[in-house]
Design brief:
It is built from four helices and no strands. By secondary structure, the chain is mainly α. Helix 1 packs antiparallel against helix 2. The relative contact order is 0.12.
């Protein structure tokens, strides 16, 4: 989980640089996205990177909550049924909060 968290932090920093670069480049050209021939593309790129940043922040929060569960001795315990989350699932999804059975039967969660 620590390696995943480090990678996620690096990804967040890279996305922030990308976003800042898009904003800076756009500041040097037309101000009006609607009438600028490149405006639609710029707006899309900005929105796409912003969405990736939001996903990255959410993943980081999930990892932080998983680390808290680890410290509290609750890591690997299903929040749905209280059973054990299989190690194979945790290997694939370290921040998982439910076993496969509960994940399939309930609303979509990690």
């Amino acid at each position: 989980m620590a390696a995943d968290r480090t990678d996620t932090l690096a990804r967040a920093a890279a996305l922030r640089r990308d976003y800042d670069g898009i904003v800076a480049a756009n500041a040097l050209i037309a101000v009006d996205d609607e009438h600028d021939p490149e405006g639609g593309t710029t707006a899309f790129e900005r929105a796409h990177v912003a969405a990736l940043m939001a996903q990255t922040r959410e993943h980081l929060e999930e990892l932080d909550r998983a680390l808290e569960r680890l410290e509290q001795g609750r890591y690997g315990q299903c929040e749905g049924c209280g059973g054990t989350i299989p190690p194979e699932r945790l290997q694939i999804r370290p921040a998982a909060t439910t076993c496969v059975r509960c994940a399939r039967s309930g609303p979509r969660r990690a």
